[in-house]
Amino acid sequence: MTVLEADAVSATEEIADLRRRLAEAQAAHTDEVRRNQAFSRIAAAIGAHQSLGETVQAVIDGGVELIGAQFGAFFYNVVDKAGESYMLYGLAGAPPEAFADFPMPRKTAIFAPTFDGVGVVRSDDILADPRYGLSGPYKGMPEGHLPVRSYLAAPVKTVDGLVLGGLFFGHREPGRFDARAETVIVGLAAQAAVAIEWSRAGEAGDRELTERRRTEERLKFALDSGRLGSWELDVETRAYDASDICKSNYGRTSDETFGFDDLVATIHASDRERMLAAMDEAIRTGGDYDIEYRVVIPSGETRWVHARGRAAVRDETPVIGGGVRRMAGVSLDITERKRAEERQRLLLNELNHRVKNTLVTVQSMAAQTLRAADDLPAFREAFEARLIALSQTHNLLTEQNWESASLREIVDAELEAFAGRERLDFDYARDLRLNPKATVAIGMAVHELATNAAKYGALSTPEGRVTVAWAIEPPEAPARLVLRWTERGGPAVTTPSRRGFGARLLEKGLAGELSGVVRLAYDQSGLGCAMTLPLAALEP
Amino acid sequence: MKTLAALKVLVVEDEALVSMLVEDMLGDLGCEVVGPAAEIEEALRLAGSAEIDAALLDVNLGGRPIFPVADALKARGVPFAFASGYGEAGLTEPHKGSPVLQKPFREADLRRVLEGLAAQVV
């Protein structure tokens, strides 16, 4: 071989060598680009704040790609709401079913360094590793396990040393993972730890946010169903924020503005000073604000509102001048309750009035009866009879809610105590309803007439009869009730020498009370009583 | 200042039995009864023109308040007292402080109130 030939060979070899080195450099470059792309995908996945599962998957996929593994897995611990710890996993290069039938990895000699966070386990052929196959029940990989020979595992732990889980990579051929792959996986494990911590913090934050929303919804539901409005006041700026129901308590719609000045202006002038004083007191002392006041809503209607509040207790609430910075509270429309209280008060007053009036009536009956009575037994008999007569009219009124009673029933009730009911004739076109005052007055009048008839008149003999007749005369206004009591068949009647209680009650009392005229006629054939009473004084 | 004897007292009371009692009590005290008036129109007429020294007014006259009658008496300078089951609680603001006979009352209570009224009569 000539020198020239030798040179040519040398040149050819050199070119071949250069080509080979160029190809190697290109491959290394491609490899570097691919690895960088994988890293940036992982970084993007972590930065995207996805769910824990998605983040974990991005880490495994990236790891498989970076070191050219066939399988990748990540086993990690999670803690459920009950505080129970359990293990989840993500896979790459194999479907999830590949591990579905196996128990979770335990701290065997192979796995312990990973799960305990001791360090990386890298093996060119795991089947030849002295730590392999020591633990039961499988003594190695269980039947059906992915055919792993090259093995690389790294713990994923936080900077504090807390082990979150482990990254595992495998290949069916031995000698696939070199020192460079180990370095890559250690870096990836560190990134995974950060990603998992972020993801967990995010999920915890989401949970807290959801819980807060739920709490707020529950509170709003409770407020709404109780028709409770809520409000908040910035003491310094007087910025006032009212809920929709709170606004409606003050006669405002939800889209109307309603500031503190509007609130003060809408409070009844007579209650305003008291409200402002109560609020100042609560602000100054940090005590409770609790007040009922009237409000005049824009329609002009007066309503009642019960407002309660308290200094907002928050750590960041600065206390100024011994007072508080914010107040928050609720408002309730209590108009109906106030009206009911007012009705009850009026009813109680009315009841008291009736009771007192009845007592005076009884006092009067006792005094009148005593004046006319010959002795105490006579007083007792007459007084009790009058008391019962009064009670009868009350019974009739009570049945009708103290609104009215029928004239026929009044007469029947008063005559019930007397034996001669069957000797009573009625003559009238229609029954009449009387107001309470007329019921008591006419009831007492009929009682006096009946008592007199039973003692001295038609009902004191077996043959005597009484006719009670009434009519409305004249038919046009002002109409009057003309009621006639006529006795027949009793002993001969003489005009009494002195006017008794009955006569006085009828001719003066009843006539005066009902603005009418009552005449007693002492006809020899029997006593007659004619009452002419304006209907206006009788009707309910 | 007048004594109770021959004191002319307007009685406004719408319940017969009650006005009979008051009439009897006033009669026992030697007073002369004017009325009794059972309705507001009649009471106003008597309060405005009748010859009276004092008046005893039932606060509630058939569901209508007596206060117009009280005002008329005040305008005439006629002293008066209320008779009421409500006590002073049943009075409106301008009449709070007027003498009140709480129903039921004794003749001695009526005498005391009337003596107070008579002392105001010039």
UniProtKB/TrEMBL annotation, chain A:
It catalyses: ATP + protein L-histidine = ADP + protein N-phospho-L-histidine. Transmembrane segments: none annotated. Residues 215-286 form the PAS domain. SUPFAM superfamilies: GAF domain-like, PYP-like sensor domain (PAS domain). Keywords: ATP-binding, Coiled coil, Flavoprotein, FMN, Kinase, Nucleotide-binding, Phosphoprotein, Repeat, Transferase, Virulence. Residues 289-346 form the PAC domain. SMART domains: GAF, HWE_HK. It comes from the Bacteria. This is histidine kinase. The keyword Cell inner membrane does not apply.
From TrEMBL, chain B:
GO terms for biological process: phosphorelay signal transduction system. The keyword Phosphoprotein applies. SMART domains: REC (SM00448). Residues 8-118 form the Response regulatory domain. The modification 4-aspartylphosphate is found at D58. Keywords: Phosphoprotein. It holds the Pfam family Response_reg. This is Response regulator. It comes from Caulobacter sp. 602-2. The lineage of its organism: Bacteria, Pseudomonadati, Pseudomonadota, Alphaproteobacteria, Caulobacterales.
